[in-house]
Amino acid sequence: MQPDLRFTDPDDFEKYVARKCIDLGYEVIMPNKNTPGYDIEIVKGKERIAVQVKCHKAKQNIGQYKKFVAFLELPVASNFTGGWFISQSGYSKNVLSLAEADREPNLKLGTIKERGITWNYDPDSAPGENIEDQIEDVVEEKDNNVKYFGIFTCKGGVGKTTVAAHLAGAFAIMGYDVILLDLDPDRNLRKLFLQDQDSDEDASLYIPPNKKGFLGSTITVLNADEWDERQYPDVKVVICDCSPVLSENPKNLIRKFDYCVIPTTLNPLGIAKNGDVITRTFKHIRNENNKAEMFCLINSYSGSQAYEERNKHLLALVEKPIREYQKQDSKCQLIHPDYVKIRESRALRYWGYHLVDGSPPQLAFKSVANRSAPRTDFMQLAEYLEDHTSITATKGL
Ligand SMILES: Nc1ncnc2c1ncn2[C@@H]1O[C@H](COP(=O)(O)OP(=O)(O)OP(=O)(O)O)[C@@H](O)[C@H]1O
Ligand SMILES: [Mg+2]
Question: Which of 162, 183, 302 to mutate to test ligand 1, by most ligand atoms within 8 A of the CB atom?
Fold first, then answer.
């Protein structure tokens, strides 16, 4: 879908948006040019709205969405009753899916059209209504290749299973049917997704759609020997939860990995003891597979300001050997936590409690006050991987 209008000058775009707000009956107040967080303030009766405008050619992504949502929570934004995020190019499908999942009550996402602002997310619309006019955007160029993601590191207990399951959840929210291959002999993943703990038959989860009239997506957990691409023609994403002992993973699957996600934590003892674990992991995979792109991901990140300085130093220690290794293998990289990280969270720490209390399987995406940090982080990871990889598919139709 081509946008109706194209601005190249951000000031022209800002003025155009301001005019559209006046048309909607708002009084417009332009703050100082360098005011952070928003571009226009609009007022009508008791409403006082911070409007952020983006003149980008590209659609807005989850990072930009998150930043504006975070701004609205700052004390400096407490005078506002709400926030409008206005784009000239619309939003990635992932932002729309996340906005539908978050359902922020004071936020609206809009796109400028010749006739005015079209709302892509509006909390006053019923769930699913917002993105109906974008259905034509959803059908994309189809890449028929199944993409394999290996979640692997030589080190135990840093979040492989947690990341595999929740990355699958994020891809499912984005509309992909996902197969989760449980390659760890402990079979944790299978247990975590079993619908009935007394029967080993059905380890799966259905993720309902965000859009009216669409089908949801499924996550199905299989063992390596149960997986056959021909039997699952709709599946485009396969995520493997690997055993930390490389030789315990089937070689034929390791060779199939298109992408490898290597979780690590910023933990002084771990770094001191296993300083080269990431480069060792890169080497192990590369010995078996010469095409995989590898992404080191920071997991269990402590976001508290008090630890900012320590995180910076620890990150530098993780980053140094990776940079060095990159000289010989450019397909290996660290995802900088400024872009994507998985924050430490209680929801993830206690994920799996359903095994204890007997409730049905679920992901740690449940919202608290509308928000779920793990859901946002994993959606951002999925979007990052989608942007850096070539998975495109006909999703959720
Ligand atoms: N972001 C996070 N925040 C809080 N807790 C986390 C996070 N990620 C993982 N954990 C916790 O860390 C522990 C180890 O995670 P997980 O089992 O996923 O690691 P693993 O690499 O699969 O381990 P193994 O090598 O034993 O298979 C679990 O208790 C999990 O709940
Ligand atoms: Mg595990």
Answer: 162
Near ion ligand 2, which residues have CB within 5 Å?
A: 160-161
Check if the beta carbon of residue 128 is closer than 8 Å to that of residue 101.
no
Instruction: For residues 242 and 126, give the distance between their C-alpha atoms in angstroms, rounded to a whole number.
Output: 40
User: Residue type for 59, please?
Assistant: K
Kindly report the protein residue whose alpha carbon is nearest to atom 29 of ligand 1. 349
Alpha-carbon dihedral sign for residues 304, 296, 92, 174:
negative
Q: CA quadruple 380, 302, 349, 260: dihedral positive or negative? A: positive
Find out whether the beta carbon of 303 lies less than 6 Å from any atom of ligand 1: no
Q: Whole-prediction pTM value?
A: 0.79
Buried b (16+ CB within 10 A) or exposed e, 139-154: eeeeeeebbbbbbbbb
Domain count, the chain: 2
159 and 290 fall within a common domain: yes
DSSP-assigned letter for residue 79: T
**Same domain? 92 vs 176:** no
> Which residues make beta-bridge pairs with 131?
none
Whether 122 lines ligand 1, by a CB cut-off of 6 Å, is no
Give residue 312's pLDDT: 95
Residues spanned by the domain of 56: 10-138
Beta-sheet strands, E only, within the chain: 27-29, 40-44, 47-54, 82-87, 107-113, 116-121, 147-151, 178-182, 204-207, 217-222, 237-241, 259-265, 293-299, 332-334
CA 186 – ligand 1 centroid, Å: 14
Taking 70 as the pLDDT cut, the residues of the chain under it are 1-5, 127-144, 211-214, 389-397
- 220 and 344 in a common domain: yes
Parallel, antiparallel, or unpaired for β 27-29 and 217-222? unpaired
**Nearest ligand atom owner, CA of 263:** 1
Cα(346) to centroid of ligand 2, in Å? Answer: 18
